[in-house]
UniProtKB/TrEMBL annotation:
Superkingdom of origin: Bacteria
PROSITE patterns registered for this protein in UniProt: AMP_BINDING (PS00455)
Residues of the signal peptide: none
Coiled-coil spans in chain: none
GO cellular component, one term: cytosol
Domain AMP-binding enzyme C-terminal residues, every copy: 460-538
GO molecular function annotation: acetate-CoA ligase activity; ATP binding
Protein name: acetate--CoA ligase
E.C. no: 6.2.1.1
Top enzyme class: ligase
Disordered, as annotated region: 555-578
Gene Ontology annotations of biological process type: acetyl-CoA biosynthetic process
Gene responsible for this protein: acsA
Length: 578
């Protein structure tokens, strides 16, 4: 068998590296390389605003503006490795900031604009951010009140009106030189941070390096079939890993024209964009597909969707009925892809050009070695048993040998080390492998929640609820939902002197919304007299989930063992109906 690394090595040969053999920088491969090869006049990004008006940026313009921003950052004293973050809607400035930061060898990240002040504060603090590019209103609403508590934050570059204590992004950019020679960049230098959540503790800041660009390029070519000439639309927001890996980096590195929709989801709008922009490759989420399905086939039939060559999805299970619907309505099937924030790029997929296996995520890419494992404790040490054969299920584990693999959780080496065992990276996903080597998704081994494709850590929501004076304890679960996959539901117990009521429930949800923002706030909230605990006092979210699903409690022991909870707790939840 061909060594797995050959797949990546071959892909790397298509990239240029920095001129003069000075290393590998994502921004050079994404923009400057195309300009150097004479493709500077091609549209790199087309922004479709809320009214449908399109504003295009060529590779040459993007190259110049990102160079200008790199000069701005150097002028502000940004050094390699310093964290430069953005908090902005999907505007051209966000993309310019990302590429400029990468050119300046800063470490870049986007904060999801729908987060509230608390998740933003936690992330800025955790990463020790030095420069924040922020839209004025988002800054005023979500950062200003906490700025004093983020000592590392030296400069706020405001998009739009100047806010107190900020500099004008536009003015700085306009005054900067638009030529920039990227300094030598080691391929293993940090380039990006993507936040992700576990079940316990604050969110984790997964660190990715410049070498990851090989992974973005190789997987977009193979699993999304991107090639020059394509008009490609990744519907994910850059506040999440898909929006950066496949909404920003991969399409530019592949030299295609990429659509950025500045509006919110609307089925008619989406079909119109596909028709008007002649979108050939669409990368989206199963939640979005379900929303299109709900809008009915008549709506789709009003548009010419024949430009679509490949449709792919990620983030949640893609059910077989969605694949059939797409064949009938879009004229092409949907290719499921599987990956994670940590893997940085697609690992498992139903590849375009091959038969789609409906209901399965597909097979590992040629550069990926995937195993099904079971965890085993021996003498206090964790071991993994690889389960060979067909139709076996267990946890998905990967041999970490691809270029876009994360290299650290920023400032948390122990948490990073815990993600690996016996030479394998543990994904936390439960899967079944069939005789043909295709993987099916069974569920998570832990208690993270996937709502509308967004990964949500229950701990972050519980912490926000606990900050309310009425709340004694909180446990948050994902409740199955027909469109979003899951929605968040909180169970809370009250402190003495507080009474459960509809008005208190609204108050608590409102309190959580104000702190967390609409993306993270619990959708539902139930009061309980008590919550189920393990012997060591941890709240057993799985018992709450089972209660919600009406499952017998006995079904829970196996999965509790998987995340280290003590399965012998028997205390059932006692939930009130209000
Ligand atoms: C890219 C992204 C990762 C988790 C992952 C798994 C779930 C991703 C999936 C899927 C079923 C698929 N997931 N792709 N589940 N089928 N094709 O989503 O990254 O936000 O880190 O989430 O999403 O549970 O472990 P991230």
């Amino acid at each position: 068998m061909e060594p797995k690394t050959d797949f990546w090595r071959t892909a790397a040969q298509d990239l240029d590296g920095l001129p003069g053999d000075l290393g590998l920088n994502i921004a050079h491969e994404a923009v400057d390389r195309h300009v150097a090869r004479g493709a500077g006049e091609r549209d790199a990004l087309r922004f479709v605003d809320r009214r449908g008006v399109v504003r295009a940026f060529t590779y040459a313009e993007l190259s110049k503006q990102s160079s200008a921003f790199a000069n701005v950052l150097i002028g502000l004293g940004v050094r390699p490795g310093d964290r430069v973050f953005a908090l902005a809607p999907r505007t051209p400035e966000l993309y310019i900031a990302a590429l400029g930061a990468l050119k300046a060898r800063a470490v870049f990240s986007v904060l999801f604009a729908s987060f509230g002040p608390e998740p933003i504060r936690v992330r800025l603090l955790k990463a020790g951010v030095k420069v924040l590019v922020a839209e004025d209103t988002l800054y005023q609403r979500k950062v200003a009140q906490n700025r004093h508590a983020i000592p590392s934050l030296r400069h706020v570059l405001s998009l739009g009106a100047l806010v107190p204590g900020s500099l004008s992004f536009a003015r700085l950019l306009g005054a900067a030189r638009d030529g920039y020679a990227i300094a030598p960049t080691h391929p293993d230098e940090p380039a990006l941070i993507h936040f992700t959540s576990g079940t316990t503790g604050a969110p984790k800041a997964a660190v990715h390096v410049h070498r990851a660009v090989i992974g973005h390029y190789a997987t977009a070519r193979l699993a999304l079939a991107l090639a020059p000439g394509d008009v490609y639309w990744c519907t994910a927001d850059p506040g999440w890993v898909t929006g950066v890996s496949y909404g920003l980096i991969a399409p530019l590195v592949c030299g295609v024209t990429s659509i950025v929709d500045q509006g919110e989801f609307d089925a008619e709008r989406w079909y119109r964009i596909i028709e008007q922009e002649q979108v050939s490759v669409l990368y989206t989420s199963p939640t979005a597909i379900r929303m299109l399905m709900r809008a009915g086939p008549e709506l789709a039939a009003r548009f010419n969707l024949r430009s679509l060559r490949v449709v792919a999805s990620v983030g949640e299970p893609l059910h077989a009925d969605a694949v059939q619907w797409a064949r009938a309505t879009l004229g092409v099937p949907i290719h499921d892809t599987w990956w994670q924030t940590e893997t940085g790029a697609i690992m498992i997929a139903n590849l375009p050009g091959r038969d789609v296996i409906p209901g399965a995520m597909g097979r590992p890419l040629p550069g990926v070695e995937a195993h099904v494992v079971r965890r085993r404790e021996e003498g206090g040490t964790l071991h993994l048993d690889r389960i060979e054969g067909a139709d076996v299920s267990g946890e998905l584990a990967l041999i970490p040998s691809w270029p876009s693999m994360f290299r650290d959780y920023h400032d948390e080496p122990e948490r990073y080390a815990q993600a690996f065992c016996d030479g394998l990276y543990l994904t936390g996903d439960l899967v079944r492998r069939d005789a043909g080597g295709a993987f099916r998704f069974l569920g998570r081994a832990d208690e993270v929640i996937k709502s509308a494709g967004h990964l949500i850590g229950p701990f972050e929501i519980e912490s926000a609820l606990l900050a309310h004076p009425a709340v004694a304890e909180a446990g948050v679960i994902g409740k199955p939902h027909a469109v979003s996959g899951e929605v968040t539901k909180a169970f809370v117990t009250l402190k003495p002197g507080f009474e459960a009521s509809d008005s208190l429930r609204r108050q608590l949800i409102g309190h959580a919304r104000k702190r967390l923002g609409p993306a993270l706030a619990p959708r539902e909230l139930a009061f309980a007299d008590s919550l189920p605990h393990t012997k060591s006092g941890k709240i057993m979210r799985r018992v709450l989930r089972a209660h919600e699903l009406g499952l017998p409690l006995g079904d829970l022991s196996a999965s509790d063992a998987a995340d280290g909870a003590e399965p012998d707790a028997t205390e059932p939840p006692s939930v009130q109906s209000t």
